[in-house]
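Cast an eye over this sequence plus tokens and explain the fold to me:
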Amino acid sequence: MTTSLYWHTEGQGSDLILIHGWGMNSAVWQNILPALTPHYRVHCVDLPGYGFSQPSDAFSLEEMAHCLLNNSPQESIWAGWSLGGMVATQAALIAPERVKGLVTIASSPRFSAEHGWRGIKPEVLQAFTKQLAGDFKTTVERFLALQAMGSPTARQDIKWLKQSVLSHPWPQPEALEAGLGILANADLRPHLHDISMPWLRMYGRLDGLVPVKVAQELDVLAPQSQRQIFANASHAPFISDPAHFTQELQAFCGQCLPSCQNKVTK
């Protein structure tokens, strides 16, 4: 099935793709676009069934990655937040020649906690799945509150995220359910050694959904990658610490795209 995706594209320069997380949409990136668009052609996408993108029956992690690959520039830096980070990682595994650089933001190759692996408790994901059947809008709003939990700017972060979600149509309940299934079951850890392009992992030290301990685990599982931890951010560092976030993102893009290095502000 071919799905029509909504893209918001602006700026000039090399291509940079930004992928939102579960329950969100492409509007979450609006506050950092002014810092990025003078240097990059930025593509913000609504995942299938989210925002302005058409509903789809292609809801597995691989299917979503293929859907984006079929509708995106041939060579780009891919940056994904939370669930979007898993989609970007899957795209990098499927088509490494298409991904010049990979950035995962507050993301994990395995979101569900298990056997000593830190993450979201399975019962929390199960509760969200159950609540979706009753009132999916309330479920999304509750998840929004978790995004900023622990951040010193939590109230402002939650307000911004709500405004972003409401600026686009609500996601399809089927897309939300499928996304929770990915968060509960997907595990990319066995494949991380296959990632060959430059890879930056970005975390919030106060994140309650992707604990910073995950960063340390991935230092071992993916030694070819590099990491950046934002001391005063939780699950949405690009919202709570946008200046520092864009500085680090541009510095990484400069490594992937040497011609951009002279545009990076140190």
